[in-house]
Structures are given as structure tokens and as C-alpha cells.
């Protein structure tokens, strides 16, 4: 399966935008997460994304910046996000996640979706 390369002649292709949406949904459905944080680079959705996708052979490496709810325990919540993202990407898209780094970018009060 090819990742992020729409110019392949045959086989399967998974767009980075699909991976990004799957990661965002998994992270934001995790209790304690307010939202995926905005990053420095623009995503395919036009907004700045806090998700970095690095394909390498048949696996992908992810880096995801999140904003926690202020009352959520940081480490346990980040571990749950990590597991949710790996599970969602592997089960939904059939891609192997070699590593998912979770960056806690902020802690906010109340529910916030960017």
C-alpha cells in the first residue's frame, strides 16, 4: 500500500488527508482531549495542522499535538490518545503505525474544537 503518492501506477493509495482525518477523530474522541492543536504547517484542509505524518516503507510515524482539558491527567490521557490513534489507523486504514508521538501543546478549560 502506498501512502501519500497519488502518481502510482497500480495498487492501493491512502491519502494523507484520510490519515489526518482518522487521527484527528481518534484523538478528539478520547476523554480528556479538548482538540488537536494547530501546528506550524498547513494541512490539506487549509488550516494549520498539529499532525505530522511520516511514511517510511510499509509503516507510518505520527506526531500529534493535542490540547487537554485542564482537569485531565496528562500522561494517562496521552497514553490513551496514543492507543486510540494506533488502533484507528491500523483497524480502519490497514496501515501499521510504528510510532505515535503525542505532544501536549496546551491545557484548556472547557471543550474546545479548533
Describe this structure in words.
By secondary structure, the protein is α/β, with parallel strands linked by helices. It has a single domain (2-108), classed as Alpha-Beta Plaits, CATH 3.30.70. 29% of the residues lie in helices and 37% in strands. It is built from two helices and eight strands, in the order ββαβββββαβ. The strands form three sheets. Strands 3, 6, 7 and 8 form a four-stranded mixed β-sheet that branches. It has a two-stranded parallel sheet with strand order 1-2. Strands 4-5 form a two-stranded antiparallel ribbon. Strand 4 (41-42) and strand 5 form a beta hairpin. Helix 1 crosses helix 2. The protein is elongated. 29% of the residues are buried.
Order of helices and strands: EEHEEEEEHE
Provide the β-strand percentage band: 35-45%
- What best-fitting shape do the alpha-carbon axes yield? elongated
N-to-C terminal Cα separation, in Å?
Answer: 31 Å
Largest sheet: 4 strands, mixed
Number of domains: 1
C-alpha Rg, in Å?
A: 14 Å
CATH topology-level fold name: Alpha-Beta Plaits
Per CATH, the superfamily is Cation efflux protein, cytoplasmic domain
Low-confidence stretches: none
Overall helicity: 25-40%
Mean pLDDT level = 84
CATH class: Alpha Beta
Give me the count of strands. 8
Number of distinct helices:
2
The structural class is: alpha/beta
CATH architecture: 2-Layer Sandwich
